Amino acid sequence: MAFLPHAVIFILTVVLCIQQSDAQSVPDRCWCQNPSSKAFRWKNIEEFSVTAPKSRCKVTEIILTLKTNSKRCINPKIYQGEQLLECWKRINTENKRATIKLSECGFNRNATIKIENTTPVNQL
Questions:
Q1: Residue 2: inside a domain
Q2: What's the confidence (pLDDT) of residue 113?
Q3: What is the full DSSP assignment across 61-101?
Q4: Per-block average pLDDT, block size 10, for the chain (124 residues)?
Q5: How many domains does the chain have?
Q6: Which residues lie below 8 Å from residue 78, measured CB to CB, with a gap of 6+?
Q7: Distance between CA 120 and CA 31 in Å, rounded?
């Protein structure tokens, strides 16, 4: 008789541990394997997100979502990357937003900087 309550508690504990481990999973690598060192045309960018350095990825990553719904990474050290980081810090002060629309930053969307040799963001 005493075995049944202990078995139920054990099974519930195992299920709870499995759920908690899934909730805390963290990507084990950087999203951006080869960020672009050339700027994108502002008019082609819909929104962007910034991923801060973390334990398994030591660099800041800027992921652009283009109007074609494709995702591209840009080097945060180039001028356009610096501008996007400034906008991110200005608008996302409480770190609650996942993405920011480019229109919120107030950049000139008619700038014509051409980009070549871009690689898509790796999907997990």
A1: no
A2: 44
A3: EEEEEETTS-EEEE-TTSHHHHHHHHHHHHH-TTS--S-EE
A4: 68 62 61 94 95 91 96 96 95 90 79 50 52
A5: 1
A6: 37, 38, 39
A7: 10
